[in-house]
Specification:
Spore Coat Polysaccharide Biosynthesis Protein SpsA, Chain A; binds ligand A1H0Z; elongated; alpha/beta; binds cytidine-5'-triphosphate; 6-stranded mixed beta sheet; about 35% helix; 7-stranded mixed beta sheet
Length: about 400
């Protein structure tokens, strides 16, 4: 009798999508006492970057992180520290397949927290140690899973695959162009992959490495293969962690948060700067009143943003800048990587003497020397505008030359 492996074909456009992130391994190939998913990059556990990547996608309703029993508390503290939402932590198994199966059960059976989550139409399965996953590939595999029942990201093989004979000599080699590396993310109609796991043998669960194979073997579902990007690789060896750190640093340097107060003309500068930067780097523009919105800024700082442009029209911008530095320090953002803080002081008045502006910049320069010891690179820019009738405008820029 054909297994009841769920219906195929296009589901409702707004159908629920959930993600299961297996994070229950011990990371033997990487070495060290800490399982690789909990190794920190820029002070933040690797798994948190992957959860964050999923959280940035609004149409993923639930994120199930599957960890070994001894790491449940650690995962809970990561979720709390980094403010992860939509996350349910589930107990892992002794193999990856068993962990994934445990993650799926939370939608189908009472899990240990007795919380039954709404069953999604489509479930994404993505290794927690593949932190560089973007919405585009996730959307592609989810749409393909809706139409075909299963889908998975693939990449060209780098090395040729060969088969060795029992005597340790070459038996044959595969024609590399005909084969692909199976990567993650993968996506499935929930009923198909859940049914497949329910029919799995212990051998499958203990020695298998391929979810797409289970859907084919037990639900006769040929997964749609989707070409993925180069950064879908899995952190497996130490070198992969170094590579991940280099990519994360590169990503951080491409993010800036523009902070202004809510006054109209300053907010206008915020808008113009955002528009001019957004085509080149990832920009977040925030208009807050520093003294009133600590919470909002704390969220930004704990969001691991590493570059800030603070635009102020206050008389003494250095006090505003000091407030930001204090909040940055309170946010426990690990300043392992230089934080760039550009303090832009807009001085729109009729009879501003340049001396006041220069005094201000000198104060900022002195402050910059102090905060540089904390790995915060502070720059001050002063924009002075004379009244329109004089038709003059001056801008002076002072950098910390120390
Ligand atoms: N019992 C297991 C084993 C692995 N995984 C997870 O499956 C993903 C991919 O597996 P792999 O790279 O093999 O991780 P490890 O098993 O930890 O690595 P190793 O084989 O080197 O020990 C990882 O996120 C890992 O945490 C899991 O959830 N449960
Ligand atoms: O075998 P490992 O546990 O190292 O990693 C799991 C990988 O096999 C898996 O993530 C992809 O190959 C896609 O199935």
């Amino acid at each position: 009798m054909e297994p009841s492996c769920g219906s195929r074909g296009p589901g409702p456009a707004a159908a629920a999508v959930a993600a299961v992130l297996p994070a229950g391994g011990s990371g033997e190939r990487l070495g060290g006492a800490t399982p690789k998913q909990f190794c920190t990059v820029q002070g933040r556990p690797l798994v948190s970057y992957t959860v964050g990547a999923m959280e940035r996608i609004s149409w993923i309703s639930h994120i199930i992180v599957v960890v070994s029993p001894e790491n449940i508390e650690k995962m809970n503290s990561i979720v709390e520290k980094y403010g992860h939402k939509r996350v349910t932590i589930v107990r892992g198994g002794v193999t990856r397949h068993r962990s994934i199966f445990n993650g799926l059960k939370v939608f189908a059976e009472n899990n240990f927290s007795n919380q039954l989550l709404q069953k999604p139409e489509v479930v994404i399965i993505h290794d927690a140690v593949r932190p560089f996953v973007e919405e585009d590939i996730l959307s592609k595999v989810v749409m393909a899973a809706k139409d075909h029942g299963a889908a998975g990201a693939i990449r060209p093989l780098v090395s040729t695959v060969i088969a060795s004979a029992a005597d340790g000599f070459l038996d044959h080699s595969l024609e590399r162009a005909r084969y692909r590396a199976s990567e993650m993310p993968q996506a499935f109609l929930f009923d198909i992959i859940y049914e497949a796991y329910q029919q799995c043998t212990d051998y499958d669960l203990d020695y298998g490495t391929e979810c797409l194979h289970l859907a084919l073997k037990y639900c006769k579902t040929n997964a749609k293969l989707v070409e993925g990007t180069a950064d879908l690789w899995k952190v497996t060896y130490k070198r992969d962690l170094y590579a991940a750190e280099s990519i994360i640093k590169g990503n951080l340097s491409q993010q800036v948060c523009i902070i202004t107060n809510v006054k109209e003309d300053v907010a206008q500068v915020n808008f113009l700067l955002h528009e001019s930067l957004k085509s080149r780097i990832k920009v977040e523009a925030v208009s807050v009143t520093l003294s009133k919105n600590d919470g909002q800024l704390q969220d930004i700082f704990s969001g691991q943003c590493y570059n800030f442009v603070c635009i102020s029209d206050k008389k003494y911008a250095v006090e505003e800048t000091q407030k930001l530095v204090d909040m940055l320090e309170k946010s426990n953002t690990p300043l392992l990587y230089p934080v760039v803080l550009i303090s832009v002081h807009l001085d729109v008045s009729e009879n501003t003497s340049c001396s006041i502006g220069m005094e201000e910049l000198t104060r900022i320069k002195k402050f910059a020397r102090e905060v540089k010891k904390k790995n915060i690179l502070l720059y001050g820019i002063l924009f002075q505008y004379k009244s329109a009738k004089e038709g003059q405008s001056q801008s002076t820029e002072e950098k910390d030359e120390s």
